[in-house]
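Query structure, 180 tokens:
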């Protein structure tokens, strides 16, 4: 993200960020490329997008953040044992649960292999927290590529409850290259 703060950076996102702020989703897409772009594109295509932000909880990707905000976010480790991370996420997950009503569900498009997101969310959302089983065994870039393809084609993935699911497995075959 340091590139966004360079005074010589002449592209629009850097100029907006330096002059007061830019949308969180655009900043994260810039920083992580394919991985986040795939998640955000897919979430926007098939539902409402929320981003897990350290120290902030669940945040709309359209929320404008400043360089100072980003500095504050960077001070909070993504660690469930740290209350600065865990408590805002728990607070917002509980609010989301209330918003879901009787039958609503949430799809986690983040990492399922570690507990950094899943453990907190499963503890609150239980069986209403779903994930794409096709994520099992895939790395970040593979998940991002899969999600971006699905968003572009309009083909929604299948989901299953994360509670009790197998979260680790063999790496699936690589995605085939898209032809122009």
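Result returned for the query:
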């Amino acid at each position: 993200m340091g590139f966004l703060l360079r005074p010589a950076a002449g592209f629009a996102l850097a100029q907006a960020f330096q002059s007061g702020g830019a949308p969180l989703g655009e900043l994260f897409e810039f920083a992580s490329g394919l991985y986040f772009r795939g998640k955000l594109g897919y979430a926007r295509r098939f539902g409402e997008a929320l981003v897990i932000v350290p120290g902030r909880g669940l945040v709309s990707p359209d929320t404008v953040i400043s360089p100072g905000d980003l500095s504050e976010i960077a001070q909070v480790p993504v660690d469930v044992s740290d209350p600065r991370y865990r408590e805002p996420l728990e607070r917002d997950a509980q609010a989301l649960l209330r918003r879901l009503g009787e039958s609503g569900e949430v799809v986690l498009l983040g990492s399922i292999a570690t507990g950094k997101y899943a453990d907190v969310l499963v503890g609150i959302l239980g069986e209403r927290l779903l994930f794409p089983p096709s994520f099992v065994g895939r790395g970040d870039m593979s998940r991002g590529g899969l999600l971006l393809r699905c968003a572009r084609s309009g083909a929604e993935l299948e989901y299953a409850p994360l509670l009790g699911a197998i979260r680790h497995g063999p790496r699936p075959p690589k995605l085939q290259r898209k032809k122009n």
